[in-house]
Amino acid sequence: MGKTLLLTGHPQSGKTTVIRKIIAELGARAGGFYTEEIFGPGGRQGFNLFTLEGQKALLSHKDLRGDNLPRVGRYGVNLETLEKIGIPALLNAAAAGKIVIVDEIGKMELLSPRFRDTVLQLILGPATIIGAIIYKPQPQADLFKKLAQVSLWEVNQRNRDQLPKMALEWLAGSRKGI
Questions:
Q1: 83 CB-contact burial (10 Å; exposed 0-12 / middle 13-18 / buried 19+)
Q2: What residues form DSSP beta bridges with 32?
Q3: According to the model, what pLDDT value does residue 1 have?
Q4: Taking a C-beta distance cutoff of 8 angstroms, is the pair 164, 21 a contact?
Q5: Is 23:130 a contact under the CB 8 Å cutoff?
Q6: Structural contact between residues 166 and 173, judged by C-beta atoms closer than 8 angstroms
Q7: Domain of 101?
Q8: Residue 128's domain is classified under what CATH number?
Q9: In a domain, 58, yes or no
């Protein structure tokens, strides 16, 4: 049975920064994806999705519109990006025995039933997962947080600089050969 470490915290608490530091330490031993904010005039414009294999795609943007595109706040969400690039990156990492990185399990990503099912399958399976998850209550996210396989750590200003090292220590204790 695998183990999962999920980082949670308020927006801008440093979850993705911690994840990216962990990715840098793990190198080729990790697979999956992370998201990154797109900034422009007026602040945050949206999010890109980056796979650890080098793919980049637009996940959401304030100017992304269409009849079939769901919206979260002011952002149009491209679920096709998540389902055609993000989900395969997670499954490929697990199949290769890599540490699965999933940043993030948030409002946008949870709009996809395929994503929710994939994350649940991975948590319940043999994979080792490190990810970030929405802080605020959300029914599906709350289910993931309560699973026995999940360790949930809150990221905040006081601990975020220590968390990459702590996560690597957690990983070494949960997985042989790292």
A1: middle
A2: 101
A3: 58
A4: yes
A5: no
A6: no
A7: 4-36+79-174
A8: 3.40.50.300
A9: no
Report, as an integer, the average pLDDT of 49-56: 98
Residue 135 in domain: yes
pLDDT class of 177 with cuts at 50, 70, 90? very low
Provide the token pair at 166: 């702590």
| Pick from 50, 66, 70, 67: nearest CA to 58 | 50
Query: Does residue 74 form part of some domain?
Result: no
* In-domain check, residue 59: no
- What's the total number of domains in the chain? 1
Confidence at residue 178, expressed as pLDDT on a 0 to 100 scale = 39
Query: Taking 50 as the threshold, does the pLDDT of residue 47 lie above it?
Result: yes
